[in-house]
Amino acid sequence: MSNDINKIKNYLRVVLTPDCNLSCYYCHREGASSRKNIFKKQDFINVLDAANEMGFEKVKFTGGEPLKSPYVFDLIEYSDKLFNDVSITTNGTMIPYLSNNELEKLSKARVNISINTLKPSRYRKTTKTNYHNDAINGLKIIKNISKTKINSVITTRNKDEMEDLINFSEKNGVTLKFLDLVNYPSEFISLDDIESILIKNDFKKLGSNSEFFEYSKGNAKIQLSDRLYANSCKNCDYYKCSEGISFIRVFYDGLTTTCFNSRKNYIQPNSSVKYIKENLQKAREEIDEKCLSV
Ligand code: SF4
Question: Which of 259, 262, 263, 286 to probe ligand 1 with, by most ligand atoms within 8 A of CB?
């Protein structure tokens, strides 16, 4: 484990909306499927301003499907001026339908596209939609204008596609990140098992940047998450959850958390930047409490 607690305390994840155009069987909607969109654009901007004033360095936009948020493009453009690293995790299926102006704003972020399979029939079973082609086209469009990564959740259902996914990402010149699915024990394949498969296939471990371990073979680059399981994780109902402690989340209804088993502070809509900073500070203190004895 090489996670650096200060990096976690300076990494903000903004969950823009619970809405999504797919219906993946494993989706946890960041733990918040039943809540409503409340924040307006100015609320998100105030959160970004507060994070900037507190020295946060990284911001990631997620959902639901973040491209379904009416504010996403303006918020990416705004964040680009404030933070060293701006990224978004999307299913990619809406990218082929974006305007040039929207694409230009999206390209200011690093874009992670979730593609678990190259088989349309398997995609249909996983997402309950026929948008496989759109996801692949989305990747092909965005990789030319933005730093792009493919996220693939590996389970017993698609383990047989690992090699194809590696070849596909190499052919498209993008990094591939494999993720595990801890909350589905019957289909679970651990990151350790995935690492063994990579090593068996002559991938070399390059090291870690505190968020992920990186492996390479030829031009292919693979990443596996490097998670921080805090001391408090051992007594947690979710132990071990799929995320570990790796960032502070602010949701579309103001909920502010550090992990699935976090204390639940709420930032009210129309709050001042000063008040938001107090909430983010509480989250930072919770990370200290949970993590210092790791
Ligand atoms: S939910 Fe939080 S406390 Fe529980 S295992 Fe995950 S990171 Fe640890």
Answer: 259
Residue 214 lies in a domain: no
At 250, which CATH number? 3.20.20.70
- Spatial contact of 226 and 1, defined as CB atoms under 8 Å apart: yes
pLDDT digits (tens, 9 = 90+) for 218-273: 999 999 988 888 888 888 888 878 788 989 999 999 999 999 899 989 999 999 99
- Answer yes or no: are the C-beta atoms of 231 and 293 closer than 8 Å: yes
Q: Which atom of ligand 1 is nearest to the CA of 228?
A: 7
Q: Is 40 helix (H, G, I), strand (E, B) or coil?
A: coil
* Whether this model's pTM surpasses 0.90: yes
Residue 294 to residue 110: CA distance in whole angstroms: 30
What's the domain count of the chain?
A: 1
Q: For residue 142, what are the domain limits?
A: 2-158+238-291
Q: Which atom of ligand 1 is nearest to the CA of 258?
A: 2
Q: How far is the CA of 288 from the centre of ligand 1 (A)?
A: 14
